[in-house]
Amino acid sequence: MSSSPPTEKADSRVQTRHVPLFSLGRVLTITSGTVTQLFRMKVFYFLFAFALVMVAAGNFSLPATPAQELSTIKKVSFGTMDLFAWLFSIVATALLIPRDQEDRTLYTILAKPVRRIEYLLGKLGGVLCVVGLSLLVMGTICAITVGFRESLLVSEEIGAMQADGHFAPDEVNQQIDLIRHQGLRPELALVVLAYFFKAAVVAAVTLLLSTIASSSLFTIIVSILVFLIGNAHALATGFWLQESGNSWVVRIVVKVVKVLIPDFQIFAFSEGIVQGEVVPYWLVGEMGLITVGYLLVFLLLSLLVFVDKEF
Amino acid sequence: MKRLFHFVPRLILVLALLAMFGLVREPVEQRMRARLIEANLLLPPPAQTAFEQMSQSAMMGTLGGLRTLVATYLTLEAFDYFSTKSWDALRQTYQIIVDLEPRDESNWVSAIWHLGINATANMEYNDRLPKFERERLFREYAFAGIAFAERGIAQLPDSVAIRLQLAEIYRVKLQDNCATARVYGDTIGRPGALGYVRRFYGYFMARCPGKEREAYDYLISLYREGKQQHLPTLIKEIKNLEVKLSIPDKERIPDPDPDLPRPAPQSQPSTPLPGGIMVP
Question: Is residue A73 part of a domain?
């Protein structure tokens, strides 16, 4: 038959095009594509809202000592950063797969020799890059605000104590140390890292929900719900059990919730750092390992749902 | 694998694996939580009373991981109560705030200051209330401030700021010299305690009936530390105690009483100017 030679040629072409099981290059390509996609969605506009909160926090006028004033500014600014980080993480992750489906990019990508795990890893990587970048920008804004306010308060306090005239130099130093303790310190960088850990786990959970759900809205609502329950179950367990007289039904419900929903409350260890507590670095390291564990497990579970999903 | 997927619905498989992961991570997270609380990085759960007193929105915020933001918002609300002199609302609000952030010293200090100093001052000058009611509320707010201080000290055992604020209530409002001395005495040697605390301990002990001899010995030991302690109030208190305890003259300190007028410095005889003019 006349068609036999071309078939042989095609077969030999297929044999030469060996597709590796996993390619970091393909993951990085999808990651960079996701970052571009999120940039085009103008997601960074929320930073303006954050900057407005910072301006408002910087102008609080309370009858407080300089140290208390700095503590309040820090708590508001870092609390807002935390809120924006996890919320952004949920929304950005929930939008990605449905948007790819809508734009038909998903079909183009999956028609190529791209493994589904590479696609999911690339998407998650992209979201984490953008969340990390946003946290860095927000952290810098916070640092500038707290640092500026601290230097202002320190110079005012030194002026006031020197004008008073009856304070010994060591008393002035003690007072300034008290203010500096609530000011800009290198440990505050770990707060940003703690928010990143939390946002990363939130993104992984949202990715799993996104592979199950069919709409972004559903994913966003359920993810927020899961996040709130994940924050509350550690706090509310004792309360529920006491209210119900330690009923076994409540105990079972609590156990099921604890087992299925991640404990986001332990990621709130940043609160202590914001308030000036000493940070044991190994604890932060262990929290990092727990975060990696969450990312791996939720990524694999997402793959389990996504691996042969028809679109 | 495909056969397994065929028989077991995918979602159930995911839930089962999630549950298995949950069973593995739960003890790890429990241990981690305990260590984070021990390192003061994670706050212990708020007391049940705090949840009962919170508004629904504040409770939702707290449960939703916005504990710090809720506490800060409540601090602003408490300031509003301070502006409108709604002392009972302010007390309730601070009870929630300190439950939410028990390790933040400034919350305890503010609560003690508002109740022990501001609310009591308001009761002293509030003409709209009958005198008896004013006095009753004055004591109630002063003791509410003291109760906050005691809870705060139990929470932050080394806090100097809480103790100083407590001493203010005893000193300024209740004029209880013995209690004031006890609090200053308890503050001595704690990290961040300023030098004046040691002197104040002696001053108020000197005014506490029955403690005069102890106060004298303590103040004399401070006096003997050197010139830097020879301050007018310290000298005055020692002089008062010398009289009260009939200390023999030879044992008394040589410094003059700081309240008595000092003798005018002896003027040098003027040198006559040329022409024999004397400048007075």
Answer: yes
**Is residue A75 within 8 Å of residue A274, measured between CB atoms?**
yes
Chain A CB contacts of B46 under 8 Å are 235
CA–centroid distance for B262 within its chain: 39
- Phi, psi (degrees; rounded to nearest 5) at B271: -85, 130
pTM of the model: 0.77
Looking at residue A26, its amino acid is: R
Contact between A288 and B32 (Cβ < 8 Å): no
Q: For chain B, how many residues are written?
A: 280
DSSP-derived letter for residue A277 is P
* Residue A42 resides in a domain: yes
Tell me which residue of B137, B54, B67, B56 sits closest to B101, measured CA to CA: B67
Residue A173 lies in a domain: yes
> How many domains are there within chain A?
1
The predicted complex's ipTM stands at 0.82
Give the residue numbers spanning the domain of A202. 23-306
Nearest-Cα residue of chain B relative to residue A224? B64
Residues of A in Cβ contact (< 8 Å) with B41: 269-273, 277, 279, 283
What is the tens place of the pLDDT at every residue in A56-97? 877 766 667 788 788 888 888 888 899 899 999 999 999 888
Cβ atoms within 10 A of the Cβ of B51, count?
20
| Crossing angle of helices A188-212 and A216-243, rounded to 10° | 110
